[in-house]
Amino acid sequence: MALRGVGAKPLSERGKLDERPVKPWEVKGLSRADRVIAFCEDLPITAGKLAGTQMRLRAWQREFIAAVYAEDGEGFRPVRTAVLSMARKNGKTQLAAALALCHLLGPEAEPRRGLFLRPDPRPGGKAICQNGGDPACPPGA
Questions:
Q1: Which conformational region is residue 114 in: left (phi greater than 0), alpha (psi within -120 to 50 degrees), or beta?
Q2: How confident is the model at residue 133 (pLDDT cuts 50, 70, 90)?
Q3: How far apart are the C-alpha atoms of 71 and 78, rounded to whole Å?
Q4: Residue pair 100/115 in contact by the 8 Å Cβ criterion
Q5: Measuring CA to CA, how many Å separate 24 from each of 20, 36, 61, 76, 87?
Q6: How does the average pLDDT of the chain come out, rounded?
Q7: Of 17, 110, 117, 138, which shows the fewest CB atoms inside 10 Å?
Q8: Could you tell me the sign of the dihedral formed by the alpha carbons of 140, 93, 107, 114, in that order?
Q9: What radius of gyration do the chain's Cα atoms show?
Q10: Does position 2 have pLDDT exceeding 70, yes or no?
């Protein structure tokens, strides 16, 4: 194992994840929507009461993903833009964050592709991500 600098000790085994031979969204035979759903449900929840568990999509979230990522007979996605509007505390932010990750580093990722998420600009609007030095989340977002 490589050292991190002069006199540095090797990294410990703590915090390392086992490599999986096949990720859930890379299983053969999945449709585009099924790959997105599998990716989202493989994401860990890192904060709150459910920290340490995997994300589970609700039925309406699955239906929304299936409608947005449906393919026509030629394999093209007819829906290019989707808007979701509903009351607070229904899982919109969690779904938007999961889909953003899906497009940044999951099965829908494309090189040099831009991605924009717009939280509610009104007072009291909640930011989807907060910059803690993370380059994927711009300051002020």
A1: beta
A2: very low
A3: 7
A4: yes
A5: 9, 10, 18, 23, 31
A6: 79
A7: 17
A8: negative
A9: 18
A10: no
Closest CA to 53 of 65, 44, 62, 66: 44
Compute the distance between CA of residue 126 and CA of residue 9 in angstroms, rounded to an integer.
42
Phi-psi region of 133 (alpha: psi -120 to 50; beta: other; left: phi over 0): left
Kindly state the tokens that stand for 134. Answer: 């993370």
3-state SS, one letter per residue, for 31-78: CHHHHHHHHHHHCECCCCCCCCCECCCCHHHHHHHHHHCCCCCCCCCC
Which tokens go with 87?
Answer: 């009351």
Element (H, E) at 104: helix 92-105
Assign residue 29 a region (left: φ > 0; alpha: ψ between -120 and 50; beta: otherwise).
left
Structure tokens at 93: 């932010």
Model confidence at 134: pLDDT above 70? no
pLDDT at 112: 75
- Total number of residues shown for the chain: 141
pLDDT at 119 over 70: no
- Using CA atoms, how far apart are residues 62 and 49, in angstroms rounded to an integer? 22
